[in-house]
C-alpha cells in the first residue's frame, strides 16, 4: 500500500485509437496501475480485470471503458478474496484480484484500485483480454432437452473444452506441476457460484467469455486452469470447465479450502439484483443431479468439508463472507435442491448401488468414478474395487491384481466381456470368470493371465 489516494488519474501515453471491430486474434495485456487510476486507449479487448499482490485485503476496484468513441459510466468490480485453489494446491504464483468483467469490445480503459482507507495498492495491474473469435463460436448445441427419468440420472448435453476453444497449452503456463489434472477422493457436494459478470451477453459471445475467464484465471491469478468445474449460461447451455474429465472428481479452484471432494458450478452473470432465468436454473439442476446421483449423494443431506457442516448443494457464501453467488441466485438454492432430488428420483436404486451396500462402503471406499455407462453395461469405480453391471451378468466386482489387469484391457472390454463371478480361490492361485473368458492369477508366476473361451 502506498500514499493517500490522489483525485486525478495517472495518464499513460495513449496509442492511436483503433477501429471498433471484433478481433480474430487473441491478445493479453497487463497495464501497471501504480496510481489511483490509469487512462489509456488500447487495442480492442473483450474482458477486463484488476489484480494485485496476494495478501492485500479490502480493495475497492472499478473501471470504465471506451466503446465506440464514448466512455461508459464507472462500474465496480466484484472482489472475491476466497475464490481460488486450496492452500496446498499446485496452482502457481497467485495474485489476488477482482472477478473479470465481460465488456464485449472496447478500445480504452480507465481503472482504479484503492483500499477502504483510500490508499493506493502497490503492484496492481489492469488486465485486458481479447479471447479472439473462432468459427465454432457461432455453433449452437441447441436448447436443453427433456428431463430424463433414467437411473442413474444421465450426463446432460455439455459443450466440451475442445468445442469452446480451450488452448490446452495454457495449462503449462504456471509450470509442469499444472499440466496434469489433480483429483480428489470422491464427490461429496457442490458449490454454486456466479461469475459476477454482465447478463446481456449473446449466444455467440459465450465461448469467447469462457476462453477469457480461462486466460484470466491462469495468466492473471496464477492458477493451473479455469477454476470452475462447470459453467452454465443464461440460455441453459452447460460448459465443461477445468480439464481432467467431467465424470471424475477433478480438483477445482472455485472455493478456497473447500475444493477437495466438491465441484463448482458457476452461472455466467451477476445475480445480486437480477433473478437467474429458468433455463439457467434447470440446466444447473441437471448438472448437479448427474454428478450427485452418480456418486450416490443426496441433495437434501448435509456434509462436512474442512471441518464445516454444509448442505450437499451450497452457495459460495456458505463458506465465507462473500456476495457470491448473488442474493437472487442464493435464494433459489432451496428450489435447486428440490429439483435435483426430483430429477434423481428421490433415492438410489441402481443394482450397482445395492450391490455396493452389500459389500459395505467401509470395505470398498467411496466412489471415485461415479456410476457411468460402459460399452457393455454400467460401472462405478470405488476406492478398492470396480463394480460392473449389465442385465445379462448382474453386478460383480474386480479387485486387486484382477482390477489392474482388467483396466489395462479397457474395463468393460468387448472381447472379454463383463465379469459373471467375483474372484475366487483355486489350487495354485485364483481366477475370475467373464462373459467370454477368464482372468487367472498364477501364484508361482505372480501375474494375471487372460484366457479367452468359456472352458478352463
Automatic annotation (TrEMBL):
Single GO MF annotation: N-acetylmuramoyl-L-alanine amidase activity
- Annotated N-acetylmuramoyl-L-alanine amidase domain ranges read 174-326
Domain Peptidoglycan recognition protein family residues, every copy: 156-320
Q: Which InterPro entries match?
A: Amidase/PGRP_sf, Amidase_domain, LGFP, PGRP, PGRP_domain_met/bac
Give the highest taxon in the source lineage. Answer: Bacteria
Q: Name one GO biological process term.
A: peptidoglycan catabolic process
| Alphabetized PANTHER family for the sequence | PEPTIDOGLYCAN RECOGNITION PROTEIN (PTHR11022), PEPTIDOGLYCAN-RECOGNITION PROTEIN LC-RELATED (PTHR11022:SF41)
By sequence similarity, the record places it as follows: Belongs to the N-acetylmuramoyl-L-alanine amidase 2 family.
- Protein name, please? LGFP repeat-containing protein
Instruction: Tell me the organism.
Output: Kribbella jejuensis
Amino acid at each position: 500500500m502506498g500514499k493517500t489516494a490522489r483525485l486525478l488519474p495517472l495518464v499513460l501515453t495513449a496509442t492511436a485509437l483503433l477501429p471498433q471491430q471484433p478481433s480474430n486474434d487473441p491478445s493479453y495485456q497487463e497495464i501497471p496501475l501504480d496510481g489511483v487510476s490509469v487512462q489509456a486507449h488500447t487495442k480492442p479487448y473483450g474482458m477486463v480485470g484488476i489484480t494485485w499482490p496476494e495478501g492485500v485485503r479490502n480493495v475497492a476496484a472499478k473501471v470504465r471503458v471506451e466503446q465506440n468513441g464514448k466512455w461508459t459510466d464507472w462500474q465496480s468490480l466484484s472482489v472475491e478474496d476466497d475464490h481460488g485453489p486450496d492452500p496446498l494446491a499446485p496452482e502457481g504464483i497467485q495474485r489476488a484480484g477482482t472477478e473479470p468483467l465481460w465488456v464485449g469490445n472496447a478500445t480504452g480503459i480507465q481503472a482504479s484500485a484503492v483500499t477502504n482507507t483510500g490508499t493506493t495498492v502497490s503492484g496492481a495491474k489492469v488486465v485486458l483480454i481479447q479471447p479472439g473469435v473462432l468459427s465454432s463460436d457461432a455453433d449452437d448445441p441447441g436448447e436443453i432437452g427433456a428431463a430424463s427419468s433414467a437411473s442413474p440420472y444421465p450426463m446432460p448435453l455439455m459443450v466440451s473444452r475442445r468445442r469452446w476453444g480451450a488452448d490446452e497449452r495454457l495449462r503449462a503456463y504456471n509450470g509442469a506441476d499444472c499440466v496434469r489434472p489433480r483429483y480428489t477422493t470422491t464427490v461429496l457436494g457442490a458449490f454454486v457460484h456466479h461469475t459476477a459478470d454482465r447478463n446481456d451477453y449473446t449466444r455467440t459471445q459465450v465461448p469467447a467469455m469462457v476462453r477469457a475467464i480461462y486466460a484470466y484465471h491462469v495468466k492473471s491469478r496464477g492458477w493451473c486452469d479455469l477454476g470452475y468445474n462447470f459453467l452454465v449460461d443464461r440460455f441453459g447451455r452447460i460448459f465443461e470447465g477445468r480439464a481432467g474429465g467431467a465424470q471424475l472428481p477433478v480438483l477445482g479452484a472455485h472455493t478456497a479450502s473447500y475444493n477437495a471432494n466438491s465441484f463448482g458450478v458457476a452461472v455466467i452473470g451477476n445475480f445480486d439484483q437480477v433473478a437467474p432465468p429458468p433455463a439457467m436454473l434447470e440446466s444447473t439442476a441437471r448438472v448437479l443431479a448427474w454428478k450427485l446421483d452418480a456418486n450416490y449423494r443426496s441433495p437434501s443431506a448435509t456434509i462436512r468439508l474442512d471441518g464445516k457442516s454444509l448442505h450437499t448443494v451450497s452457495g459460495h457464501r456458505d463458506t465465507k463472507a462473500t456476495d457470491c453467488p448473488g442474493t437472487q441466485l442464493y435464494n433459489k438454492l432451496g428450489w435447486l435442491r428440490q429439483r435435483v432430488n426430483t430429477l434423481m428420483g428421490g433415492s438410489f436404486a441402481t443394482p450397482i448401488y445395492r450391490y455396493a451396500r452389500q459389500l459395505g462402503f467401509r470395505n470398498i471406499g467411496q466412489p471415485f468414478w461415479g456410476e457411468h455407462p460402459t460399452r457393455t453395461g454400467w460401472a462405478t469405480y470405488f476406492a478398492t474395487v470396480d463394480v460392473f453391471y449389465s442385465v445379462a451378468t448382474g453386478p460383480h466386482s474386480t479387485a486387486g491384481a484382477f482390477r489392474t489387469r482388467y483396466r489395462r484391457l479397457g474395463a468393460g472390454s468387448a472381447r472379454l466381456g463383463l465379469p459373471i463371478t467375483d474372484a475366487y480361490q483355486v489350487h495354485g492361485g485364483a481366477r475370475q470368470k467373464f462373459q467370454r473368458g477368464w482372468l487367472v492369477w498364477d501364484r508361482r508366476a505372480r501375474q494375471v493371465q487372460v484366457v479367452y473361451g468359456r472352458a478352463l
